[in-house]
TrEMBL record:
Residues 478-571, 606-692 form the 3-hydroxyacyl-CoA dehydrogenase C-terminal domain. It comes from the Bacteria. Signal peptide: none annotated. Its main location: other. Pfam families: 3HCDH, 3HCDH_N, ECH_1. Keywords: Fatty acid metabolism, Isomerase, Lipid degradation, Lipid metabolism, Lyase, Multifunctional enzyme, NAD, Oxidoreductase, Peroxisome. It catalyses: a (3S)-3-hydroxyacyl-CoA + NAD(+) = a 3-oxoacyl-CoA + NADH + H(+). CDD domains: crotonase-like. Gene3D superfamilies: 1.10.1040.50, 2-enoyl-CoA Hydratase, Chain A, domain 1, NAD(P)-binding Rossmann-like Domain. Residues 298-473 form the 3-hydroxyacyl-CoA dehydrogenase NAD binding domain. It is found in: Peroxisome. This is 3-hydroxyacyl-CoA dehydrogenase NAD-binding domain-containing protein. Pathway: Lipid metabolism; fatty acid beta-oxidation. The lineage of its organism: Bacteria, Pseudomonadati, Pseudomonadota, Gammaproteobacteria, Pseudomonadales.
Amino acid sequence: MSEVVTLERQGAVAVVRVNNPPVNALGVAVRSGLQNSFNAAEADPEVKAIVLVCDGNTFIAGADIKEFGKPPQSPSLPEVVNEIEAGSKPSIAVIHGTALGGGLEVALSCHYRIARKDAKVGLPEVKLGLLPGAGGTQRLPRVVGVEKALDMIVSGNPIAATEAEQLGVVDELFEGDLLAAGLAFAEKLIAEGKGPRRTGERTDKLEGVDNAALVAAKRAEIEKKTPGLFSPQRCVSAVEASFTLPLAEGLKRERELFAECLVSPQRAALVHAFFTERQASKVDGLPADTPVRDIKSAAVIGGGTMGVGIAMCFANAGIPVKILEISEAARDAAIQRARDTYGMSVKRGSLTEAALEKRMALVSGITDYADLADVDVVVEAVFEDMGVKQKVFEALDAHCKPGAILASNTSSLDLNQIARFTKRPEDVVGLHFFSPANVMRLLEVVRGEQTSNEVLATAMAIGKKLKKVAVPVGVCDGFVGNRMVFQYGRESEFLLEEGATPEQVDAALRKFGMAMGPFAMRDLSGLDIGLAIRTRQRQTLPAEYKLPTILDKMAEAGMLGQKTGKGFYVYEKGSRTPLPNPELPAILEAASKEQGVERRTLSDEYIIERTMYALINEGAKILEEGIAQRASDIDVIYINGYGFPAHQGGPMFYADAIGLDRVYARICEFHEQLGAWWKPAPLLEKLAKEGRKFADL
Ligand code: 3H9
């Protein structure tokens, strides 16, 4: 018998134990181990009930994602779960941590389920471009009804154990020891003479409800919210089979739909996004035994939107945080801003009043650098001006204790120069949060030329503690994300000057999957943002690097976006709904004329090429310069910080999927037609000519 699954007997109860770290995924060894153990327990005349329990932090967290795309190995999971359900002795799944995907499907094939109070259960397959493929779409509706099953399967979001109990997904909640709880439940079943209770045989929850109407409504909702996604509609089709077909045929239909998802490019992209997000936290060349400093307290310099958002991240993680401002009024305003922002979450129902008070108790305001003497990490979030940063870092150097981490949230300034304002450049690191910092998951951890390994490792650990996706990057103008988005923004603006409208560009990119179009995004962040950077670039860039002027023209006319009610779109008072800006066509005409460009019709495909290939070309340069460690880190940055669709895998994965030879050839054409900005990255040229991919690096 496989050692990842063991079987032992405790009186009349057989205990099947899974021990496959880190998350007890259902690789082939676990599947065959489960099959063998349940068969052996079935065959043992002394056994009256079977308990399934897992070692480590969690129950089974799903199929082994690493096996997708490889030749299938027997036994398959559907085979295993069908056998468990068919068993003649009552079986009990004892859930702790998370029972996800195939893990919940195994639990649903057991005849009873109990869960530790802090556990979660769910079917998150849709987030990987799949659907539950081992009976989840047939068994869950039989337990919770079609409406709730559709919600869980199409959203992929897990539910807490308490809700699972209310819904009947689990029979009982427990606290404390897993095995003791499992054995007690099993002995109770034996004493009461209870036999198997097979989910697949139930039909009560499928009756007396207009399930067809629920399915139609869900389809319409998906069509509206995520029209470009492959697997959600198939999830619905699979659930539909639970009430239109007998179990065996429903399971067959589920398998067919699962197989369609398995070979879809979106599944490959989403699995890439899953693994690369985890890989990004690993810093190449950083020894595994690098010590990590203890972070028990924090401070933020500057109580603007960014500073307060960063302070909230620490408070959310239970770390006391001070906000330093220059005056008492500014300090009090910062504290109020934090309270108001939490207050909005309370209004939305995502935070309780008590949790708000608990978090606010961790946030304090100060005006004196001397009060920073005891903090473990300081994040500077002041105005983007080197002179201002110099004053802050000199003061930090004077007041912070030895060993404190001095971090800058700069998004474009030279971190190495900032570090030199202190006598301890090895303690200086960049922590580049994205706005709103308390919401956005991405954190670029900027490694300066003198940042020590210990400080880098601690900065990555801080990212994890704050529940961010922390990605290490090197020093350059804009680091990875903003350096690339500059290329994307510039091309979008050129497209307007060549004949496109903001509506067309935004719609094309949203159809591609971007969370927001570039112009709706510009209106949100404000057209004056980056004005200083553009002015500096105009002065320093060689003459052949032309910049679009549309943004500056609009900013000069006072069209700053949502904050002035007018930008690329107009916004009625109190509304964020973009409406066409009637003054824009004349401004676009004038800008085209000024650039000497004849306005023409541009296709959506062309819009995608211009914007995406600009990202890819810059990404290749960033890789070559070593600013990002891996192509996949760039993907992680783009997905988590810039609304890039995970189902396209990130810009570099997208390039690999198209084929670098094709991308390179098109960039060469653009270079010829559009000039200097399009000079192909040497790395892209090399890989294209060698027939390789970014993923091969
Ligand atoms: C499925 O079940 C299909 C079935 O319906 C049908 C089949 C026929 N496989 O996230 P963490 C690794 S689809 C392989 O950092 P946490 C992960 O890469 C599956 N590996 O920990 C990482 O490795 P490393 C449905 C996996 O505590 C390590 O485990 N299930 C898997 O923050 C730790 O992961 C899911 O989609 C896996 N399934 O969070 C659940 N899962 O250390 C996916 C994790 O080398 N998993 N790894 O970087 C999760 O959501 C989280 O990992 C979990 C733990 C919440 C479980």
